[in-house]
Design a protein that fits this description.
With 526 residues, this protein is of the alpha/beta class. The chain folds into 3 domains: 197 residues, Glutaredoxin (3-Layer(aba) Sandwich); 189 residues, FAD/NAD(P)-binding domain (3-Layer(bba) Sandwich); 108 residues, FAD/NAD(P)-binding domain (3-Layer(bba) Sandwich), CATH 3.50.50.60. The chain is built from 14 helices and 25 strands. It has an 8-stranded mixed beta sheet with strand order 2-1-3-4-6-5-7-8, covered by helices on one side. The termini are far apart.
């Protein structure tokens, strides 16, 4: 199952085990079970502290119906961490970490967070649906596995949605990661450990709001944790300024990017890796990193500007840099909001495996849309790509690849008018042929929207000059129309929305803000 290089790496990691770990497998006669049996054997060969047990149908734990699956538990302890399916692809790291954490190796988590995890009251039974190609799923799977490993009141089962299609269909899981708690839907999308713990610890939010509001004013506060925000924070900290950065999630839109091959000096990487590297670099400096907080309002002031957060906390700063990036643009048609995550989705890499063998549509003929259609064509039964204009806007090389695929149909001059559904999930899509005015219906299971981005600037409306598209108007120093407030990256009028451009723009905004602080604090002439 594992190649020799990977076996060697696993052996090195499992040398950190402090106690015996048992892998108890529930298998059947399917090829997937044969693969899982081989994987578990490789893990057992990698360490004398890993043992594999296989249970028969008659000996299966009460309520255990998923096969193939296996639990990861310490010898003599009840199983609290389980994988249903093969945790390969992005989830292989989750498997290795589960072995280490159950096996007594200390996690790289603050003592305060661990105390909060161990204090959670239960029972808390989590089930997470993932796909091996999902970049956001490992954060959720690893966080819940760690919680289960540290607290006997918590159990967690990570389910490969592509392998358990009937269960996914029954629960209407059409986007990953999707998390259930005690049988009820708990959350969806990328969530980090501290975010999950805060969601479970009701008293945590009040304590957090109070602590944030009591922070001393910053010299420079950056709103947004993507490439522009990270670069701005580093440049500000290097100038010796009291610097803070507040973000809903570090990495921003980058975290949803699969392959990055045009970030100069880095031949190839992916979004989560780059996002983690950005955060690591920022934390190498004395920057106050405030995560999982969304800016709701900017209140310009004299000596200090105030950024009000959705949680109720307020932060003050002498200068502010808006680097909030952008989000996927909606179609704004009937049915889209109703069936979001129930067939309407925006991430082909993450959610594509859930539509294996089904018919889907991709909306948008730019690079993102064509790349999505190419990616999906290898998984689903058929892809219909709809483009509003008379021709696709994607690069020629991508168009040639797309048109070579036998299960892809391209429809131009198509205006999507409605997403159709049965009240539970998407069943189709209606579009208008712009050349004839006729309406056409497509029978579909999924709609992947890839029609560009919208700037995340709602919290700035009414406080500064924005374009009709919502972009922050900036000058060549990244100054906004509000003195002391600067902006950078995809949220601004800077052309060409690229990671490397956002990074440079963040540095420029920080230097512009630094120049403003110097000039505004200079003593008056004698």
């Amino acid at each position: 199952m594992l190649d020799e290089d990977l076996k060697a790496q696993v052996k090195t990691y499992l040398a950190l085990l402090k106690r015996e770990v048992v892998l108890t497998a529930a298998l059947d006669g399917t090829p997937a079970s044969d693969e899982l049996r081989s994987l578990l054997a490789d893990l057992a060969d990698a360490s004398p502290l890993v043992r594999v047990e296989e249970i028969l149908d008659s000996a299966a734990p009460a309520g255990e119906v998923r096969r193939p699956s296996f639990s990861v538990h310490a010898s003599g302890e009840a199983a609290r961490v389980r994988f249903a399916g093969l945790p390969l692809g992005h989830e292989f790291t989750s498997l290795v970490l589960a072995l280490l954490h159950v096996g007594g190796h200390a996690p790289k988590t603050s003592e305060e967070t661990l105390r909060r995890i161990e204090g959670l009251e239960g029972p808390l039974h989590f089930v997470t649906y993932f796909s091996q190609s999902c970049q956001n799923c490992p954060d959720v799977v690893q966080a819940l596995n760690l919680m289960a490993a540290r607290n006997p009141n918590v159990t967690h089962t990570a389910v490969d949605g592509a392998l358990f299609q009937e269960e996914v269909t029954e629960r209407q899981v059409m986007a990953v990661p999707t998390v259930y708690l005690n049988g009820e839907r708990f959350g969806q999308g990328r969530m980090e450990l501290e975010e999950l713990v805060a969601k479970l610890d009701r008293g945590d939010q009040q304590r957090r709001v109070a602590a944030l509001s009591e922070k001393a004013p910053f010299d420079m506060l950056i709103v947004g944790g993507g490439p522009a925000g990270a670069a701005a924070a580093i440049y500000a900290a290097r100038k010796g300024l009291r610097t803070g950065i507040v973000a809903e999630r570090f990495g921003g839109q980058v975290m949803d990017t699969l392959a990055i091959e045009n970030f100069i000096s880095v031949a190839e990487t992916d979004g989560p890796k780059l996002g983690a590297a950005l955060e690591q670099h920022v934390r190498a400096y004395p920057v106050d990193v405030i995560k999982h907080e969304r800016a709701e309002r900017l209140v310009p002031g004299g000596s200090f500007h105030t950024v009000a957060l959705a949680s109720g906390a307020e932060l003050r700063a002498k200068s502010v840099i808006g680097a909030t990036g952008a989000r996927w643009r909606d179609m704004n048609v009937p049915g889209e909001a109703e069936y979001r995550t129930r067939g309407v989705t925006y991430c082909p890499h993450c959610d594509g495996p859930l539509f294996k063998g089904k018919r889907v549509a991709v909306i948008g003929g730019g690079n993102s849309g064509v790349e999505a259609a190419i990616d999906l064509a290898g998984v689903v039964a058929h892809v219909t790509l709809l483009e509003f204009m008379g021709e696709l806007k994607a690069d020629d090389i991508l168009q040639r690849k797309l048109r070579s695929l036998p299960n892809v149909q391209v429809v131009t001059h198509a205006r999507t008018t409605e997403v159709l559904g049965d009240g539970r999930q998407v069943t189709g899509l209606r579009y208008e042929d712009r050349t004839t005015g006729t309406l056409n219906d497509l029978a579909l299971a999924g709609v992947f929207v890839q029609i560009g981005l919208l700037p995340n600037t709602d919290f700035l409306k009414g406080t500064m000059e924005l374009t009709k598209f919502g972009e922050i108007v900036v000058d060549h120093h990244d100054r906004t129309s509000v003195p002391g407030v600067f902006a950078a990256g995809d949220a601004t009028t800077v052309p060409f929305k690229q990671i490397i451009i956002a990074t440079g723009d963040g540095a420029k905004a920080a230097l512009g803000a630094f120049d403003y602080l110097i000039r505004s604090s200079a003593p008056a002439a004698a």
